[in-house]
Amino acid sequence: MNETTTVEIGSLITQTPGIKGGTPHLAGTGVAVRTIVRWYRLGMSPEEIAGEYPHLTLAQVYAALAYFHANREGMEAQMTAEETESDRIEREHRHAQTGAA
């Protein structure tokens, strides 16, 4: 008898307060959806992204991309806010470095 395991696509992405800052991530991994999206935007194929993270399956990478596209507006806003905060922290650090001299 040939049995196959069916994976529910919705089970591949999780969002838990206190884990990865409450951002969507691949269940059972430390990889945030936004990380996959950033690699994809840099021109990497899903297969290349999966190759960068040997513990991920190609299905997980596609699930992250599907999640992003299904929730694009909210994800874009969240990623923009994170980038803005990162830029602010970097500016403060540079200012502290030059001010301390």
Task: Provide structural commentary.
The radius of gyration is 17 Å and the shape is elongated. It contains 4 helices and 2 strands. With 101 residues, it is mostly helical. The chain starts with 12 loop residues before the first strand and ends with a helix. The model has no long low-confidence stretch (mean pLDDT 88).
Key words describing this protein structure:
mainly alpha; two-stranded antiparallel sheet; 4 helices; elongated
Separation, N- and C-terminal Cα atoms? 74 Å
According to CATH, what is the topology?
A: Arc Repressor Mutant, subunit A
Number of strands: 2
How many DSSP helices? 4
Q: What's the SSE blueprint?
A:
Blueprint: E1 13-14, E2 25-26, H1 33-41, H2 46-52, H3 58-70, H4 72-99
Helix pairs in contact: 1-3, 2-3
Brief overview, please?
With 101 residues, the protein is mainly α.
